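Appendix B. One record, verbatim.
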Amino acid sequence: MTTFCYTQTIFINEIHYDNTGADVDEGFEISGPAGTDLNGYTVELYNGNGGGSYDTVNLSGIIPNQQNNLGTLWFSVTILQNGSPDGLALIDSDGTTVIQFLSYEGVITATDGPANGMSSTDIGVSEGSSTAIGESLQLIGEGSQYSDFTWTGPIAATNGLVNTGQTLPVTRNQIIGFAMYPNPVSDGKFVISSNSGENKQIEIYSMIGKRVYTKTVKANEIIDIVNLNSGIYLLRVQENNKIATRKLIVN
């Protein structure tokens, strides 16, 4: 059974599929927390004429730390179709969970593959035969997850780099004096603190964007995550209107 992940920590960040003359440097970019291993994830390519999948791109590599523990990886794909519409579905390493289903130049309802029966989200910008070589469609804005950003373009491509006009993550309203220890966590317990000592709402997400833990904690309260499997997670902490995000390693 295919499922859809509404909250994700990795996302499609840049797309290039058409330009003047022969297409050059076609592909897409994945963004997310530094250290995320993309091996096992795939991107399913969908044709809007009939809604069928026309290819599967196997992802690989580890997202580098390019800005504040987040980064990007570019994947060259020479067969991206030119729209009216066409789309891409980002699929979790379990082979069934659809993290994102995006399209350009219209909406697609998938008729096969992991996104079968789902309707895509049109990104609202497009390329064409007049798009200059070296341009792409990109997310801009400030934040650390897909919903923080807005699609724009075509503008100068930034393959494998943080996009022009994009800040990862938001640097304003950070929790002053935020600390967490130990990290990595080896005995299933850790502590978070800040200068204010106020209560904090914490959420922990897996690397596919699934929330696996949530709790309101007091200052220096021991947080018990003994039931979490070993791996890399994303910790999100809110203190009043201030937010901190950190990579959490559980051994």
